[in-house]
Specification:
The protein is α+β, with helices and mostly antiparallel strands. The chain has 2 helices and 8 strands; from the N terminus they run E-H-E-E-E-E-H-E-E-E.
């Protein structure tokens, strides 16, 4: 029996948007698609978790500040990988490039890559205890 609380390798774990005006985009998506924002404290400011009308978390909207500076301003998917270091080495070997990271996040790690066609994605390795 598998543990359904941990996303499987190769699946999409999350998606978020990192922009200069996270407050404005928070309000935009709340009005346009009905998402409910919840502040996520990051030092002296808040990023936002966005939830569907049933309370299910669906996305994040983040300020392009501090650790998030340099992340492209687009909806970014995060793909679960078994071993982030091995995936980054394979990315480079196959003509991709590292744009951001790797970086720790709550015991997990992620990095942002660009594939050989120019598309951008996040790679996410879950924390060892979550596996």
């Amino acid at each position: 029996m598998s543990d359904h609380s941990t996303p499987a390798s190769g699946t999409l774990a999350w998606h978020d948007l990192t922009v200069d005006d996270a407050d404005g985009l928070r309000d935009f998506y709340a009005a346009v698609v009905g998402w409910e924002p919840s502040p996520v404290q990051v030092g002296d400011y808040s990023d936002f978790g966005m939830a569907a009308s049933d309370g299910t978390g669906v996305a994040g909207i983040c300020h392009a500040q501090r650790e998030n500076k340099g992340i492209p301003p687009q909806w970014l998917i995060y793909i679960v990988v078994e071993n982030l270091d091995a995936s980054l080495a394979e990315c480079s070997r196959r003509g991709g490039s590292l744009l951001h990271g790797p970086r720790d996040m709550h015991g997990s790690q992620f990095a942002v890559i660009r594939d050989p066609a120019g598309a951008v994605a996040g790679l996410y390795e879950t924390a060892p205890a979550a596996r």
